[in-house]
Amino acid sequence: MVPLLTTPWSLTPIFLTTFPPIMRQFLLRSVLHRVVPATALFAALSHPLAAQDSAVAATKAPSGKWSARIVSFNGISGNAEIAVEPKGDKESRGRLIVRSAPINRQISWDIVAGSCGDEGRTIAAAAAFRLMLTRNDGSGEAQATVPKLEAGKRYYVRVFQQGEPATDRSAFGCANLSES
Asked: Does the reported pTM lie above 0.70?
């Protein structure tokens, strides 16, 4: 018969640090409730690939690429997608694509720090975000050079009527950017 560990505190803490937090909780609960035999748990924790996989995941660098999609505008027809990619060490280039919007419509946009509904501050001057005029098929594109988006922070894009104040409330739509 294989002896069971009676407390999770008898595990060597260094082994547990090689696993993501949710896995550590599972392992500790399993031992606490005597589901996993001690020898099986020790073998899993001391396996060299377990430590190697988590070390690689911890050192993976962010790509600096961000994206978002506004599925449907409020008040007018249309939708939008944005992609933000790094441009050197200190700048990013944002590209907004609008589809199915009213023909010859002037549309403004910006990228804002925070989340949709926060009424955050734009990350660059309004002049950085070029005005878009939709074509005869309701599509349009615009690009902007903005400061580099920082990993771990929150940003969102707003699309709004040219000449109107840039607020979350008056926008045709907003979407939170996610890092890819």
From this structure: no
